[in-house]
Design goal:
InterPro entries: FAD-bd_PCMH (IPR016166), FAD-linked_Oxidoreductase (IPR050416), Oxid_FAD_bind_N (IPR006094). The protein is an alpha+beta fold. It contains eleven helices and 17 strands. It has three domains: 21-121, 2-Layer Sandwich (Uridine Diphospho-n-acetylenolpyruvylglucosamine Reductase, domain 2), CATH 3.30.43; 123-233, Uridine Diphospho-n-acetylenolpyruvylglucosamine Reductase, domain 3 (2-Layer Sandwich), CATH 3.30.465.10; 240-334 and 356-394, 3-Layer(aba) Sandwich (Vanillyl-alcohol Oxidase, Chain A, domain 3).
Length: 394
């Protein structure tokens, strides 16, 4: 299971921050000038602090985390990516890439001051090979773009996260969605990559060639090089019909903190049991009247049996409601805005998360503390707090 909490409260000290502390890296003197001049000489479009578009070019999605780069490069070819990497090496600055710009921790801007940002918008591509059933993509392709492309043109789907405007390059590192328990994450489905290395060379990697690089890219790509292309396996929908469900306390019932703790621990009990089915996704929302929402990839009697086994572990005051739909409708429910390719406005927030392994599950006391510091915490005058627990694994 994974718990995630967002908001401005500093009381949640037990959770691990996704956002690294700022600092620890200072650009070398003259790095901005050196990098900018080198990029210009190489014929690469770029932006530096004196450029009129600098503010827009360096604006992260989470406005709370604002690293200041030394320069931004806008390569249009693989060769220009290589040249930009050589410019960074010559100036002694670190490099990061910007794809969809939807990072919770502004990772596309280096997370610390002084980096060269390689904006990959000029290398955006999205192609499908029907003979191999592989999707090839690179640059700032959003989840919604890839999902719509595969469904509308090829009646297939792909593993992805829950936010429609997150970049597919970013989600390839660790993104988790409703299909992930049954079909794995994007990372699990990567077949090959094309990478520009720090020395400027460009190589292809898969399970047979450059296999050590291929292993490293699947989870630590940002430390390996600039990934120019991913090829990932696509999927047939796991079922034609999908059951969307909600489990909530009866509307007339006033739930206590212990009721909510019992619901969370009961959900965990089911997740650790033989009744756990990989075709079920669960998102447990941490509220004063908590809810479980998700999908079962199937319908009818099969859905009733699996969800019924979950209900047996929950407080008697909780009620199950279901609705059956086709696969694509369920995609637009699980990832709101995916069909219309909706963009999410910039936000200012703090987020933290922790993984709860099977070997050390939540006990009553820890679950109580989680609710105490989230749903039942004192309300803040100028911020709101929210949190959820996902069931992972499969």
């Amino acid at each position: 299971m994974v718990a995630s909490v967002s908001g401005a409260s500093r009381a949640i000290v037990a959770l691990c921050s996704l956002i690294a502390a700022q600092g620890g890296f200072a650009a070398a003197a003259g790095a901005q000038t050196d990098v900018g001049s080198c990029l210009t000489k190489a014929g690469i479009e770029n932006s530096v602090p004196t450029t009129s578009t600098w503010t827009m070019d360096t604006q992260p999605w989470n406005s709370r985390v604002n690293p200041v780069p030394s320069a931004v490069a806008f390569p249009k070819t693989e060769e220009e990516v290589s040249a930009a990497l050589k410019c960074a090496a010559g100036a002694g600055v670190k490099v990061t890439t910007l794809g969809g710009n939807r990072s919770f921790s502004s990772m596309g801007f280096g997370r610390n001051d002084g980096a060269l940002i390689i904006n990959l918008k000029g290398l955006k591509h999205l192609e499908y090979d029907a003979s191999t059933q592989l999707l090839s993509y690179g640059g700032p392709v959003m989840i919604s773009e890839a999902a719509n492309f595969m469904w509308n043109k090829h009646q297939r789907t792909l593993p992805h996260g829950r936010c429609p405007d997150v970049g597919m390059t970013g989600v390839a590192a660790s993104g988790f969605g409703t299909l992930s328990r049954a079909s794995g994450t994007v990372l699990d489905n990567i077949e090959s990559v094309r990478v520009a290395l720090a020395n400027g060379s460009i190589v292809d990697a898969d399970a047979k060639q450059n296999s050590d690089l291929f292993w490293g890219v699947r989870g630590a790509a940002s430390s390996m090089g600039v990934v120019l292309d991913f090829k990932i396996k696509t999927l047939a929908p796991p079922s034609e019909r999908v059951t969307n469900y909600t489990i909530a306390f009866n509307s007339s019932y006033k739930s206590t903190q212990q009721d909510n703790v019992d619901a969370l621990v009961g959900t965990q009990t089911w997740a650790l049991s033989k009744d756990n089915d990989d075709l079920v996704s669960i998102r447990f929302s941490l509220k004063t009247k908590s809810t479980l929402q998700g999908f079962f990839y199937g319908g009818g009697a099969q859905a009733n049996t699996v969800l019924g086994s979950l209900m047996k572990n929950l407080p008697a005051s909780m009620v199950l409601t279901t609705n059956e739909s086709d696969f694509w409708t369920s995609e637009d429910i699980s990832t709101p805005g995916i069909a219309k390719e909706t963009l999410t406005p910039r936000r200012y927030f703090y987020i933290a998360s922790v993984t709860i392994p099977r070997s050390t599950p939540l006990d009553n006391a820890t679950a109580w503390e989680l609710f105490t510091n989230t749903a039942f915490a004192p309300k803040l005058p100028d911020a709101s707090a929210s949190g959820f627990v996902d069931i992972w694994g499969g």
